[in-house]
Amino acid sequence: MLLEWIKRHKILMSIFGVVLVLCIILSISYSRGNLGAIGSGVQTANSVTQAPVTKGVNWIKDSTKGIFRFRAVVRENQELQDRLEELNKENIKLKLDEQELAELKELSLALNYEAVKNSQGHVTGDITTVNGASYFNTFTIDCGTEKGIAKDNIVVNGTGLVGMVRETGRHFSKISSIIDKSSSVSYRVLNKMDIMGIVNGGGNGMLEGYTFDMEAEISEGDVLITSGMGVYPAGIVIGTVESVSFNQGTQLKTITVKPAVSFNSIKKVLVLI
Fold first, then answer.
1. Which residues, in sequence order, are bridge partners of residue 200?
2. Half-sphere exposure of 227 (CA within 13 A, CB side)
């Protein structure tokens, strides 16, 4: 049967035989490292086919690595920015705490005034709004009637006289400072207690006034304190005399005074109640 089938399919068997022989030859050539012409052709075709595939695979790998590396850099950058922001906030908080401590320390000096000691009590207030361009002629603090503050209460800080309460609400008080044009303060000269006079707000951050006695020996550098006459209690520092002149019209000595309080930078005040 087999022989008859082979006889009927001689061409097919011939082709099969040739293919089989070629496969055997190729196998022997590969194993011995001798490719020959046929083997070389097969290897060349294989190389040509594999080259672009290999390049494509390598490009995909490199691109993938680049994407992951970029994402890692972005993540690290964001983490650094977040940490920097935290450090900035901590630094600002430390500076604010230091400033708060310095202001409270300065404010505590006001407790040495006799007026403060003789008052029924005092309230510390933070300035919240200012009505004025460069100087705090009038301003608002963050406490009012809920703390016992009332109209005409005296306001001081650690360096001297600030002014007076003009209006109060449940949680606020409006203060008129001594540099406001509506202000008027009776003074004595420290270490020259017989010299007295009046100073008013100049509206420009300074005080202007005069002496009651045109012969009074007041001079630049003299320190003025409240006299106790009028609404302000005695002994609170007002400021320092910067200039003295004689007014022919009033026949009085006029003075310009620099306030003891820095009215362009105060943050806290003490209200006597």
1. 184, 208
2. 18
